[in-house]
Amino acid sequence: MKKCLYKISAILIAIIVLTSMSACGREDNPNVNLTNNEHSNGRIVNLFAPIGKTNPDPDKGNIAITAQEKTVIMAEKKLNLTVEYRTYMAEDYQDKTYDDVTLDRIRNNMDDMYLLNPDTIQTLGMEERLADLSGLESAKNLREVVKTANTVNGKLVAIPQEIVAYGLFINKKMFDEYKLKLPDTPEEFLECCRVFKENGIETPVGANRWWLENFVLAQAYADLYNGNNTKAEIEALNTGKAKYSDYMRPGFEFLQEMIDKKYIDTKKVYTYEAIDGEGPDFKAQKTPIVMAYWGAANADTAYGDLDFDMQVIGFPSNRGQMPVIALSGYGICADAENLEDAMNTLDIMLSDEALQIYTDSNSVISPSKNVDVNCKDELKPLYNKIKNNTYVLGSNASMKVEQWGNICNIVRDLLNGSTVDECMAKFDKLQEESLQ
Predict the structure, then answer these.
(1) Nearest to 432 by CA among 243, 247, 248
(2) Computed from CA positions of residues 96, 99, 102, 103, in that sequence, does the dihedral angle turn out positive or negative?
(3) What is the structure's pLDDT at 65?
(4) Contact 79, 341 (CB under 8 A)
(5) What are the backbone angles phi and psi of residue 116, rounded to the nearest 5°?
(6) Which of 366, 189, 349 is nearest to 294 (CA)?
(7) Of 95, 289, 302, 368, which shows the fewest CB atoms inside 10 Å?
(8) 382 pLDDT band (50/70/90 cuts)?
(9) Residue 73 CB neighbour total at 10 angstroms
């Protein structure tokens, strides 16, 4: 599970400013491989992140770092202070991960501000080691999805600089060829797969071992996040009055049908990495459907330069096409040495002015409801859903059972031959452990 959680976090964070890193070093020394900026006089805010200050070079593709650093520089100038980066450098995947080191450092009050993965946000929020950010001026402008995902025990403990959305990337040309409308529900999706299969498309859905859980999430939580009872339903799950397995079963039965009817190639799925595996078949128009994150539509190395009409839509659910969102974010140590300056720094970095710069540079969805993105036409169906607060969360710090990594791991069990009932039993066990 630890390796699975790390890998998923790495994929997620690489999409945005962070690059999740495992670390090489002695277990008893969280400072090994740690790099600092040169000390400067005056007020300082210490930022722990998987990236350091760089010399931005857009020609080499580090535009995301450039955008993030612009917001830091804005805060430094307005507050007349210096943000010092502290970075944990990766050498291999065998020793302590970036997340492990982050937990060590926050628990020992070693820095002021941190870039955090979803599972780390959840852990530290439960431990009450993160400051409440709800009082920031910038927090007033946040989309509801950000507040929902990163609120623990009534405290907003982390805020991202962008929202990472996942969807289905559709070859519209192939759908039109077989007179298929874009699917809204699981039943409609399976019917599209049947038509493709019967017309000689060997694998209607290109998938990898990390993102099939999005089908489960969309079906499991469409009502929870888009009804009027979100808080009460989460409380019922956290107290054991409701069962995660009851939410998860429809999505797992859906995946089992896809497996049985060979709409996905389970052997390939289990070994494929994100995009690298299924990408070539999608580009070659051998596979009409793949799943990916928002940024893949903008990257020429992924799906940003295609020879056919593509649409990005949400995953099928009983409420229609459903985007799935996973969020990382900035958090501040509750006992930070430079707490006031850290709060003011983050407030400027997350201001509408700073986020507009970040959003324009990266073509991403902003956490601020006041900052719009001029996205590609292909992405507008997904973006319009999110703007209208239609979404499902892939990570939610207020849920006692971690979602993204656990669902991924149990989906992999299904691919390896576990029954749906066996998978549901694993959710029940996770919930029992959380209640203890």
Answers:
(1) 243
(2) negative
(3) 57
(4) yes
(5) -125, 145
(6) 366
(7) 95
(8) very high
(9) 14
For helices 404-415 and 118-126, give the axis angle rounded to 10 degrees.
130
**Beta-carbon neighbour count of residue 175 at 10 Å?**
20
Q: Closest Cα to residue 63, out of 430, 358, 411?
A: 358
- Residue 12 has what pLDDT? 52
Q: Is the Cβ–Cβ distance between 222 and 315 less than 8 Å?
A: no
- Do 164 and 16 touch, CB atoms closer than 8 A? yes
State the Cα–Cα distance between residues 331 and 5, nearest whole angstrom. 20
What are the C-alpha distances in Å from 53 to residues 44, 338, 409? Answer: 15, 20, 35
Report strand pairing: 205-206 vs 324-326: unpaired
Distances (CA, A) of 156 to 66, 151, 236, 398: 27, 4, 21, 10
Is the whole model's pTM more than 0.70, yes or no?
yes
What per-residue confidence (pLDDT) applies to 96? 78
Output the pLDDT for position 89: 62
Question: Residue 227's CB: how many other CB atoms inside 10 A?
Answer: 12
The least confident of 80-94, 294-308, 384-398 is 80-94
Q: What is the pLDDT of residues 67-100, one digit of tens each?
A: 889 999 999 999 999 999 998 865 544 567 888 8
Confidence check: pLDDT of 311 > 80: yes
Give CA angle at 408 (406, 413), nearest 5°. 95
Number of H helices, E strands in the chain: 17, 13
Q: Are 384 and 312 in contact (CB under 8 A)?
A: no
Strands 44-49 and 113-116 come out as parallel
Mean pLDDT lowest among 92-101, 158-167, 244-253, 266-275:
92-101
Q: In this model, does residue 418 exceed pLDDT 80?
A: yes
What are 87's two structure tokens?
């970075």
**181 near 175, Cβ under 8 Å?**
yes
DSSP 154-212: TEE--B-SSBEEEEEEEEHHHHHHTT-PPP-SHHHHHHHHHHHHHTT-S-SEE--TTTT
Query: In the numeric block, which tokens belong to residue 282?
Result: 């999608």
